[in-house]
Every structure is written in C-alpha cells, then in structure tokens.
Structures
1.
Amino acid sequence: MATNAIASLPETIEHIKQAVVGVGTYASTRGAQASYRGTGFVVANGRYVVTNAHVLPSQLDSKRNERIAVFVGVKGLLRRAKKVAVDTVHDLALLKIEGSPLPPMSLGNTSQVREGESIAFTGFPIGAVLGLHPVTHRGIVSAITPIATAGRTSQDLNPQRIQHLRQRSFKVFQLDATAYPGNSGSPVYDPDTGQVLGVVNMVFVKGSKENVLKNPSGITYAIPVDYVKALLERAGVKL
C-alpha cells in the first residue's frame, strides 16, 4: 500500500510530528490549570484537530471557566479549541482551534489497508508529565476485525455491547504495536507516505470487544480513517 512514498520512517516522523498535538482542558480561574487527556492530530486547513470522543470531558466546569484546549509543541503551548462535531458511534471528535494554522496530516484510503500492512502511530503515551515529546511506535495491521462480537453466553452481554451489536456494524484495525491510555486519538499512518489510516482507540473498542475477558489483552485497536473523512464531510470541512 506504500504508494507515493515520501520518505523513510525517520523522515516521515519529522514531517508529521508537528501535526500531532495534546488534547485536554484549561481552567483560567484560581491560577492557570491545564489537564492533558489524550492525543489528537491536525487535518484539513490546519485549524481542525481529530481525536477520540471519549478524550473530551462529558461537560466543562463553568464555575472554573474550563475550556477545551489543544497543546502544541514540547512546551505545550495552549490553543483554545471548540468542539465542532462528534461521532459517538465511532468515538471520534472534531475540534477547531484558535490562532494560526498548524501543519496538517493527509488522510489515506482505508480500502487499501490489508492485514500485514506496516503502520506507525505517534502520540503522547505518558501525557505531559515529561513534556509533550511525541513518541512513535511501529507495527503491522494484525487483523481487520468487527467492533463487537455477540459473546458466548447472555452473561457476556452488557448494555454497551448490545448497543454496538444493534447499531451499524463496522470493522476496526487490530495492531500488534502497544499503545497506552495517553495514545488515545493518535494518528495511525503509513510509515512511507505519512498518510493517516486510522485513529488509536484505547477505551471504546476494548469495552466493546474485550469485556468478556477476565484479563483484558494488551492489543491496540484503531478506528479506520474513512469515518474521520465522513465526520469532516458532515461538518462541512473540506480536505
């Protein structure tokens, strides 16, 4: 699938890491208080960021003047952001950031992704504890698998699993590279072209696929990029 290759992986990382940002909240009362919640990446005209929906807080604390924020660069320079659109079925969210545009990532074609394909993803697995230094993991697409299975017994079914089974079925990428909670929202991309193929998801997919396991696996999953494209289209954002 590595067509239109631009570089080796080290060069690709240099090219795309400026588009990988931290996502969290910022409260301006009682001193500046920032909270990191996950990773995101810049798309379209450089003023939009894609992340997982679960990375965003369910509600903001108005008493603390809490707002959504995007953190840029190693120093985590703050950009205020607003939520533009959310896709709860595929756990995706689109933010619009204030200020000058950032370098965006280009979106690839999910239909060309095959099992065994090489991938990489870049994000912030330990958050902002040591500064926002992007970390890259490399692996392959080990499987293209349904978001949820029925479970072996009725005891395996919980409300979330039933909801997923009733909703429009879709497939996710199972990766053999290990991601961590802070990686939620990280772009999964072709190591040669830098094109985004999916979005790392560390909560939503595991809750759908692995709730029947007594000891959940260390498997990493990603939401295919086609659903990012659909979200952008519904929001009226041109690529």
Note: Residues 118 and 140 are 4 Å apart (CA to CA).
2.
Amino acid sequence: MPIVHTPQVLVCYCATTDIAPPAEAEIAALLDLEEQERYQRMRPPVALRFFQGRRMVRQLLAQKLYCDAQTLRFTYSENGKPGLACESPWRFSISHCDTAVVVAIGTVELGVDVEAIHRQRGKLAPPWRKPQNFMHAYNAKQVERCGSDGEKARLFTVFWTMMESQVKLADSSIFRASKHLAITLQPQGGNSWGTVTEQAREYAGGDCYWWSYEGLDKAGGDIVSLALRERGAKVELLQWSKAGAVLPAPLLAIVSPPIKN
C-alpha cells in the first residue's frame, strides 16, 4: 500500500510584549532590500511587528529546510501573497495586530490571521456595531443576535479572522470575501471548525476549513484563525519566547472552550 503522509502545519504565536527589538545587523541579514525599504517607511510599532513576522517565518522554515535563515528569500503575487523564491513543498502565511504576530507554515496551502477582539480606529465606532458593513449578511445576523457587546465583538472577530485567512489562502481580496463568503461554525473540542456554507462554496473555490483559537495570549485579547483546504492536516501550536526561541510545548492547554454560534 502507498504511504500516506499527513499534511503538517505549524502555527507560531508571539505576543507583541515578547518581541525582541532587532539590531541593525539582524535587519540587514534577514530582510531583503525591498523589505528593508518597507521596514524603514513604517511607524515603529508596525515596523517591529513586520520584522518579527519575517524573523519568525525565516527561522521556522530554515529548520524544516535545513538551511540558513539568512539565505531564504520571498516572492509575492499580484495580491501580495508571499511564497518561497526556491522550489519547496512548504507554504507560509504571516499576520500581525496590536497584540500579536502569528506565522503559519505547512506542506499545504494555508492562510492565517490574528486580530485583537477589542479594537477601535480613531473616533470611528467599533466595526462589530455594524457588521453588515464588513461581512456577508449571513454572518452579520449571527453577530447581531449576540446578547452583549463583548459577545458581539468576539464573534465578529472570529468571522473577520476567518475571512482574512481565507483571503490569504485563496490569494483573493477582503472586498470579495465580505460580499460572498458565508461561514457556518461547527464547534469541536478545544477549538472551532468553520466550513463554507453551500451558497458560498463556489466563491471559495472548493472546500475550506478553519481552526480558530482564542486565549493564545493568556488574556483572551485576540483571535487567531487558520484556513486550510485539508481537513485532516495535523496542526501544531507553538509559542515564541522573549529570547527568540520556539518553545517545543504546544499551546493547546490554554486554548479556550469552543466558539459557539
């Protein structure tokens, strides 16, 4: 019988408080010239998170490819989806917000997104107060049915990170996802499966599944969603320490109870 290899996925979480500021030599070593230009144009907090994402993904991939992290270079699609410039079965996705930087690498196509639950941009009202402006009506109605503002903010963030991760998986756009992507939650165990509803399956380009987690920052301040085509993939969670090393212990012990409809 042929050997069947289970797809492998690593999701690595780093709280912004655990980011070690880079030295100039590290910036020059790990970022290519285009990335260095982007880094210099960013505001300091955003630049630090941008660098941390590149630092994490290069070191994680270097471990899998048995190479020097400094030699890895990326290419980008027209929509900005990154990939390895060399031939490799490994794929990756990067996301960051005010609370964390998250990187996912795997032997299958994937997309990852992290977002703070309680966020507000300037004087604008929080987005979960008018969910219909940001997502499919099917999901907006579920947010509106929540009993409290806290529950609305949480469920809105679950759907938003699912949308963003699917956009990265499919190399699409958040505008298209907000119009066409409708998601049904199916809570299981210590995390939550989401599946694309039938009316949106054609938009999604086939099957799409998610793992969504909260509590990876131990304070429940953000949501992480991972989008995959492979339901049977083995997903492992890791945490990045202040020293910059990846801790071998998985984070499953601090994942919250199931996300409910």
Note: Residues 167 and 173 are 6 Å apart (CA to CA).
3.
Amino acid sequence: MAGIGIGVGGGLEIVQDLSARVIDSPIDMILGATLPTKIILTVLAAFSLVSWVLIIWKFRELRAVNARADDFVFAMAGANGLVDLNDALAELDDSAFRRVFREGIAFFSELRPGALETTHVGDGLSPTQLEALWLVLEKSLSEEKDELAHGLPWLAIIGSVSPLLGLMGTVVGVMNSFIGITSQGSANIAAVAPGIAEALTTTVAGLAVAIPAVIAYNHYASRLRLFVGELEGFASEFVGTLAREGRL
C-alpha cells in the first residue's frame, strides 16, 4: 500500500506540474516538458546534428568524386590506348577510376611482364588468368563501393529510428493526458492540453529529423548505384581494350 501511495503521489505531482504550466510559446513548452520528453527531444536533437553532418559530408564527397570521374573520362577520351592513358593519369588527382585502372594494369603486368611496352601480339592470357584479372577488378570495385558507402547506414538508422522515438514521446504525452483526466475527474482542456502538446512536439521533432535523413539516404544511395555501374562499365571496357589492342 505504501508503494501504491508513493506511485500515485508521484503521478499527481507530474499532473500538478503539467496543469500549473502556462504555455505561451513552443520554447516554454519544451523547457517545461517532463523529464522523459526532454530526454527524447535531446536524443532527437543529437540525431539531427549527426544526420546533417553526414548529409553535408556525403554531398561534398560525392561532388568531388564526380568531378574526378569527369577528369578521368576526359583523359581517357584523349588517350591513344592504355599506355597513353597510363601516362596521362600521372597528372590527375587520385580517383576511384584511377585506382581501379591501376589495380588492373598492375595485375596484368604481373601476368604478362613487358606486354604494355610492346606492340607485339604474343600468347594471350589463359582462361584462368583472365578470370583472375576479373577477380582483381571486382575486388577493387567492391572496395571503392564500400568506401563511398561510409556514413550511409547511419542515415538509414536515423531515418528509421527517429519516428519511433517521436512515437514514444507521443505515448508519454498521451499517458500524461490520461493522468490529468484521472486526477481532475474531468476531460477539460486544462487537464489534457499539456500532455497533448508534449505528444505533438515529440511527433513533429521525430519527423523533422527523419525526413531529411531518409531523403538524403535515398538520393545518395541512388547516386552510389549509378557511380558503381559506371565503374563496372569501365572495368569491362578496360578488359575489352586489352583484347582490342591484342594484349590478352
């Protein structure tokens, strides 16, 4: 009975605090919120900060990646064969295309030493060696994809968890409203308004955090798929160029 009395007393104190509040602005509503609501809003604020840092970081990273890819494509269009392209890449900044190209050239040079320095068409690669070359290129493509995908899982997590935190705050606010109705014995606006206001605040906050994160994740994931597709196309073109120049 003592435990029940303490629980009821604690609930009544919360209700008294809620009913005694005068809400003149959203700031007053947040500052005067109950402890569970403040904790949820603090976590959502931290999620929002992290998500915007990731959004800005990935925007700058993908913009730089696209600029370097354009430089590589321009150099590849002006090169006369793989040897000229290999020399032209020395003047370009490091990029995903350049790293894939370097991996492929280095492994091909190990399989056929001196093949790039001569135009003589000798024995080609065996099926096993050609398959090994493809495996090296695929490994390089996978590493580039993983590197560019850094940060995207966190955007997905924030986008999926934030609405649930907002829903938790909504439940807490509705519970406070029911406590207010029970303590005052009526469902007047003074009893339910503070709890409903807190519920709406956490709901809006959760959606405000989740919406930019979800939009950014979908946009960047789409751009990443397009870029990886371009890398895969370049890997196929690289092997095709080796075959066209009689180096396979």
Note: Helices lie at 2-20, 26-31, 35-78, 82-88, 96-111, 127-148, 152-184, 189-244.
4.
Amino acid sequence: MKTYLQEMLKRKDLLYFLVKSGLKAEHRNSYLGYFWWLLDPLLNVLVYYFLVVVILGRGDDVENYPLFLVIGLVAWRMISSTVGSSSKSILRYSSIINQVYMPKALFPLSFTISQMFNFAFGLIVVAIFLAIYGVMPDWQIIYLPLIILVQLVFLLAVGLFLGYITVFVRDIDNVLTYVTRIFFYASPIIWVGGRLPPEYSWVVDINPIAIIVTAYRDVLMYQNSPDFTGLFTILIISAIAGILMLRHYSKNEHKIIKAL
C-alpha cells in the first residue's frame, strides 16, 4: 500500500488535471456556465419552500425556515452530487485506464474534490441568506472547517467504495438513485429532526448525513457547538474505511482492468 500511495503522489498532476477537466465539463455547454453553482441552490430553495410552505402548509413554525432550508440543501447537494459522480468515475475514464497505467483511486478522489469547489459556491449562497435574515454566527464558526473535513473524509470513503464496486456491478448506479432519495427523506434536509416520533428518532441519531447537516445548522444558524461525538465517530470510521479501500485498490487494480 505504501508503494501505491507513493504512486498516487507522483501522479498528483493527473489528479489536478482530472479535477480541472471535471469542473470545466460540468457546465461546458450551458449559457450561464459556473453561475449555475450559485443559481442551483437558490432555485432548490424556491422549489422546496413552495412545496413545504405553500403546498403542504409546513415550515412556518421554524424560525427563518428559508435559511434552515438553504443550509440543508447546500450540504445535501454536495453529498448527493459526489455520490453520483464518484460512483461512475472509473467507468467514465475506462478508455484511458485501458491504455495507460495510473492508480484507479485517483478517479473517485478527483470527483470528490471537484464537488468541493461546487460546495464553496453553495456556502456563498448560505452567507447571503445569513445576511438577509440578520443571523450572525458566533464563535462556534471556528468549527466549520472541522465539519467540512468530516464531510470530505466521509465522501472520499464512500466515493472510493462506490467507484470500485460499480465497475463490477453496473446496476449499482441505478440503485443509487433510490438509495440517495431514501437518505434525503431520512435526513433533516427539509424538515426538523425533532419532529420524528420517539420510536424513529434513532434514524437521525445514527444517520451520518443527518449529523453533518445538523452540525452545519448548529454553527451557522443557532450559535451552538456541533455534536462532536457524532462528528468524530463519522471521521474515524470514514478514515478507517478509506484506508481499507485504498489498500483494496492497491491489491486488486488488475481486476478493475479486466472488468473494464
């Protein structure tokens, strides 16, 4: 595995190229280009605000509900887009992989890093909503980098796993559509976690996405410290899973080539 990691470091120029090309390709044929990174979360807020507040008549009892909504949607957008793109990352570059040797783990890593730039624009939208509603984060804002780090490590581990398994089980890509939808509604993205009946509260307690989204709201919106126990549990498990996946990549890359 040490040799594999050294090979990845030698190919950091390839990682840079993959990230750069991925960012360019995302909105290559659109008129608004990268402006969509700002427009997309805004449109998502409008759609879900209309659905939840206007159609269903909910959300009025949540203070600054649009702000509550935009934080959840921006965090979720990073998670769902990373899962979707990293799962197809190796398959997308199969023609290159079959011609030149390169560490295959670089591909899911590159797509995860690419989505971090997208997420940065989402945080700009969150900052705009904070200003509109006059909500000023307190000293707990110092925990924001920690939450972002936990989210990144978590998504890197998930991306490495999905990128590998999708090569052998192509139907995973289709199944992910429904899995991500389940996690969307099982997490407090558009609803408050405390509204669940007591017998279902464990869904939020053990859901890593719920823990991450709630942590963002705690430090940005409610001036509270995040759930450190939940965050560090996610960080440790994700780090171990990521290391195990890199080890698995280093020993089984020949299987990926055969499958492609």
Note: The mean pLDDT is 84.
